[in-house]
Design goal:
The chain is α+β, with helices and mostly antiparallel strands. Helix content is 48%, strand content 18%.
């Protein structure tokens, strides 16, 4: 192996280190608060999504994956799954807050891409 190549073990160690740098949860305030089904939601708390949750959200991309509404549906469904709040609440979030939520979730989805992923 040349000096410029990284062993699989080192790449995996780097991947795990990258994951440990991410906060395990992120709370995003909802301003204004969203009321749904008699409950007020003033924030959502996100966590790392599971592989199954990502797969379920990706189902939103099956038809028209390149269309903006399909991409937005994917984002709404992924945020809903990673936060556990009702889909209607996520759908009513401001788009800036939805993008902030996706920026956090994308930290987990992009891990390993610099080295080709796993």
């Amino acid at each position: 192996m040349s000096g410029s190549q990284v062993s699989a073990e080192q790449a995996f160690a780097d991947l795990l280190q990258g994951l440990s740098d991410f906060p395990p949860q992120l709370s995003i305030p909802l301003v204004p608060a969203i009321t749904f089904d008699g409950r007020e939601y003033s924030e959502i708390t996100l966590r790392e999504p599971t592989a199954e949750e990502v797969r379920q959200a990706e189902e939103q991309l099956r038809v028209g994956a390149m269309l903006p509404h399909a991409r937005r549906n994917y984002q709404i469904h992924l945020v809903q799954r990673a936060s556990g709040v009702p889909l209607a609440v996520v759908s009513k979030m401001g788009v800036g807050r939805l993008e902030a939520a996706m920026a956090y979730l994308n930290l987990f989805l992009r891990v390993g891409q610099a080295t080709g992923g796993y």
